Amino acid sequence: MDTSKARGGVLPRLFKRIAFTVFAFTAAAGIVFALFTYAPEAHLQHISETVKAWEAPSKPTKISKCGAFNKTDEIWKESQLKYQHLRDDKFTIAMQTYRRPKELNDTLHGLLSEEIPSLLEVVVVWNDMETAPPENYASEHGVPVRYRHSPVNSLNQKLWPDPAYQTQAIFLSDDDIYYKPKDLEFVFQSWRKFGRRRMTGGFTRCAVEEPNGKWKYSFCSTDAAHDYYNLILSGLAFAHISFMDYYSSSDAMTTKIRAYVDKHFNCEDLAMNYLVSMLTGEGPLLVKGKEPYVSFVPKVGISTKPGHIEARSQCLNYYNELFGCMPLINETAHIEPGVIIS
């Protein structure tokens, strides 16, 4: 047998196999890279977005795993299963109001004067026990506005998982603050992609540990010593309805939380952040619009009362004792449209 001819036949075939393997690997790598770098979605065709991140803070918040909450995990799993049939391509606004008709009307007008493609319904949580709410109506773009008369004047009412809700995403809102319509659509699509397990919105605050081990409520956006946030307030935030279901459950912890909120008429938004981070191990997500959100800053409100910061700090420390840990997680990133990172 002529071995040179045999080698002459084998070597070309070997080279062809090597070349084919290299080509296939390169093509596969290109496809994977393309999937990760370019994943268009129908809802985001006209939205430019990116995540802007800074260096991690030099002294991050201490995080402790919040014990063995087996019962809590079971309740939340049941909550997730209970609502998995609801739509996730639309969202509902839950807007709480109490005797501020001008602010409420201005906010509703600002939101409903333009079309928000993914908005399914607005539910106004009417906490005025002495006055009947207006009649339900539909906006000029066909969005139903439903007034839900609360049985009691409680901040917990906004976080109640209304059985009539048809969406998994609930945009928790106050009557004196709102995103511009196009920005609210962008925030919702950002929630769908990145924020389902987070409090996702535009209103940041900080819980800051003091030298004595106590916690202080801070307007971190104006505090140069802190370049992070660990709270997104529920005056302007998306939350998955399963978190609201757990908050409103008969669990011993959430029952104590709701009682504390009713006694002090404060801090339901802080409690939601504690619960979400405890359940998921993830921090909140700040999403900015192309324009600043609108805030009327009314003369009458909980945040305008003397001692507001001190009261909020007391809430943080009470929740820490109740949870037996600090579940809040520092975040240094945010999402906004049209940002280019060099």
From TrEMBL:
Residues 91-336 form the Glycosyl transferase domain. Gene3D superfamilies: Spore Coat Polysaccharide Biosynthesis Protein SpsA, Chain A. Signal peptide: none annotated. This is Glycosyl transferase 64 domain-containing protein. It is found in: Membrane. PANTHER family: ACETYLGLUCOSAMINYLTRANSFERASE. The keyword Transferase applies. It comes from Epichloe bromicola. The chain crosses the membrane at residues 20-39. Keywords: Disulfide bond, Membrane, Transferase, Transmembrane, Transmembrane helix. SUPFAM superfamilies: Nucleotide-diphospho-sugar transferases.
